[in-house]
Design a protein that fits this description.
Tetracycline Repressor, domain 2; 187 residues; mainly alpha; 0% strand; 7 helices
Length: 187
């Protein structure tokens, strides 16, 4: 537990340091914990959003290939930047008691990229008529769950990232599973 807390603190301190905020007086720069959290994770969400956007642009017009590429980019971010991913994936956003979720959360653009990709699959003939928000939540849950399991049991022989993403996206969108070669990024 202490090691995990230290990892969060190290990632948090690094993000604040990169923004010119750090040291013993870090709390003086923020009005509350939510503002401090946003400062620490905004750059990480921006980077993740850029990675997802780049992946979407590189695959062309096939919406199903685009969703798989975005899913790969999401996982690559988590695997290449584990401290940053843990910080944005596992630190809860403060929500006022009885109030709505604050607008403008740094995760918003990432969520919009995923929503758009799933909507494009639905428009292109996905058999799923499920709520798009639900599908995105299931996709993120599946990807995050695989990443957590893989990270907690590295000695286990896991299916390839390609196989997980293919099965997950096909299951969510009720599309046929395509047969493909593993990509170099999944090894």
């Amino acid at each position: 537990m202490f090691r995990r807390l230290h990892q969060y603190r190290a990632a948090f301190d690094a993000r604040l340091g990169a923004r010119g905020r750090g040291g013993g007086h870090v709390y003086l720069h923020f009005s509350d914990k939510e503002e401090m959290f946003r400062a620490a994770v905004t750059d990480d969400y921006d980077l993740l959003g850029r990675k997802l956007g780049e992946a979407a642009r590189l695959v062309g017009t096939d919406p199903f290939a685009r969703l798989r590429a975005i899913s790969h980019a999401y996982c690559r971010f988590a695997l290449d930047h584990p401290g940053r991913y843990r910080l944005i994936a596992q630190v809860q956003q403060a929500i006022p008691e009885g109030g709505p979720r604050p607008q403008g959360h740094p995760a918003g653009p990432v969520h919009q990229i995923l929503l758009k990709a799933v909507r494009q699959c639905q428009a292109a003939g996905s058999a799923s008529n499920a709520d798009t928000e639900l599908l995105v939540t299931c996709l993120r849950s599946g990807l995050h769950g695989f990443l957590e399991l893989r990270g907690s049991k590295p000695q286990r022989k896991w299916p390839s990232l390609d196989a997980i993403i293919e099965r997950l996206t096909a299951s969510l969108l009720l599309t046929p599973v395509r047969q493909s070669r593993p990509s170099p990024s999944s090894r």
